[in-house]
Amino acid sequence: MVEFMKRALELASEALSAQEVPVGCVFTINDTIVAESRNSVNHTRNPTRHAEMNCIDSVLEHCKKNGIDHASYFRNVVVYVTVEPCIMCAAALNILNVNEVVYGCANDRFGGYTVLDVRKFYEPNYLLTGNLCADEAMALLKQFYKGANPNAPETKAKKKPS
Amino acid sequence: MSDTEPPEKKPKIICNLSNIYLDTIDQCIESISSSERNLQPIISDELTQPLEFINVFVGHIKNVKDISRTILILNDKIPLKELSHLKRVRRQDIILCPTKFLDNMSSIQDYIESHVTELRDVFDYFKEVNVPLLPPKVMKQYNEVRKIWSCNFHPNHYFEKLVSNHFFSVYDVKIHRKFMEVAFEIAKWYAIHDGVAFDINNILLTIVNVTVVVDPNFNRIVTIAYDYRHDHPMQHSAMLAIDNVAKTQNGGVWSTESNDGLLPGIDKELVHFLKQKFSQFIIGLKKTNWSGAKGGQKMDTDGEKGGPKSDSHEENKEKDGPYLCTGYYVYMLREPCVMCAMALVHARAKRVFFCFNNSVCGALNSVAKLQTISSLNHHFEVFTGFL
């Protein structure tokens, strides 16, 4: 378990070097990594390109290419993500009916559990565990938020020092 | 003879969202465009629900001359910070404390004697009163409250507008209805194009949705998207629309079949059709020409003071260019699901309009109201009531 989170943390660091919000994610099936990615919101100008969404797309592509039924494929997926999935990603992972989600640190701004427990809207829903390597995940976020969002327009960038 | 016959009943269109009677898309379009009814903001329950109450002990003062002294002592010895919206006194009645403060104390007289001995002979008698736990937010609530107790209230202009039935001007209502019509025409176009009979149930059963993204400053359709979830479970129309907007900003990830540069990812024939049908709107956004000429009278895009902060100041736009969906309006056939609604929060949309409720997983009205969750970093306004 920890090894997968460590890999997700590496991906998060990679995101940080690319000036993206440092969140990394790996999808596993039977303890084998089947997809891995990181946040790419700034690069794509698409605010929904979170690490989880990128992993989802790569699994869908894999399934399509190999004629695999993605619905049954996702059923066996365990997700390791450095930060608690946001409300959008939590909903996406529930729509796809993944088996389990393990996250690092909580997301008290828009977490799909902390802010609004999205699982209650879906039946069945996934198992959820938090607090695996939370400090490392949080340290990366803190490092990022010290800097500025490179994509924000001038007038919106860092209005108030926080 | 004929006089005694009841007049023939007009078939009534049932607009109740859970019971749609309109079974063809043309009926829907007709109904949306012919109505002049104002749209309805979907707002926090705090503004619409009856207030919550708390039971308090009230003491009736014997001598009016003791009132001010008693209040001073009570505010010092039994301060009631959480009830600071209420005046402590109403005529000769003074709020002492919530009844739950008593715990094991046998009576309010005992409580007063042990906490504020100096007031033990001030009161004639005691009674219990239900007073509002929270301050009233709108005039309607205030009017209820003040029948019960004197209360501080400063009307918020924006809140009053939200609970009124005339949020938009007549002109704006027409335009919003027209943009919703665009969404329905797109649904119809795809139904014809794909050779399937359009079935309104497909919208209600969360299979089909359409998203139209508009820059209200120029009445410009920035992008549109039709649901593709049958092929890709994440490609709900709102998710596709957000990616299409990214494409207008030199980004985007999902490859799409055709691209004529005007509406990235959208079929040329459809773009042509929309241009013919809705000539009053500017269709498409050229990457290099986003600050094009103004088209006609523009909608009132600034919320009232005190409302969600306005991001669409043109000056800012001129300087920065578009950023995500900042300042944009989003029109959808059906209330977005939890994923799509949160995606629109991430995208910083300014207003979201939808026609049908999504009772299964709609996150702007049905199962949740993301626009009212204060911890989120962006809040848009949400409107419905087209039918």
UniProtKB/TrEMBL annotation, chain A:
Record keywords: Hydrolase
BP GO terms, sorted: tRNA wobble adenosine to inosine editing
Single GO MF descriptor: tRNA-specific adenosine-34 deaminase activity
Superkingdom in the source lineage: Eukaryota
CDD domains noted in UniProt: nucleoside_deaminase
Keyword Hydrolase included in the entry's annotation: yes
Xref: SUPFAM superfamilies: Cytidine deaminase-like
Gene3D superfamilies named among the record's database cross-references: Cytidine Deaminase, domain 2 (3.40.140.10)
Pfam families: dCMP_cyt_deam_1
Start and end residues of each CMP/dCMP-type deaminase domain: 1-125
One GO cellular component term noted in the UniProt record for this chain: cytoplasm
Full protein name: Jg23852 protein
TrEMBL record, chain B:
Region entry Disordered, spans: 292-318
Any one of the GO CC terms: cytoplasm
GO BP terms in the entry: tRNA wobble adenosine to inosine editing
Extent of Basic and acidic residues compositional bias: 297-318
Keywords associated with the record: tRNA processing
Keyword 4Fe-4S: no
Statement: the UniProt record of this protein carries the keyword Electron transport: no
Molecular function as annotated in GO: metal ion binding; tRNA-specific adenosine-34 deaminase activity
Family: Belongs to the cytidine and deoxycytidylate deaminase family. ADAT3 subfamily.
Name assigned to this protein: Jg3017 protein
Organism annotation: Pararge aegeria aegeria
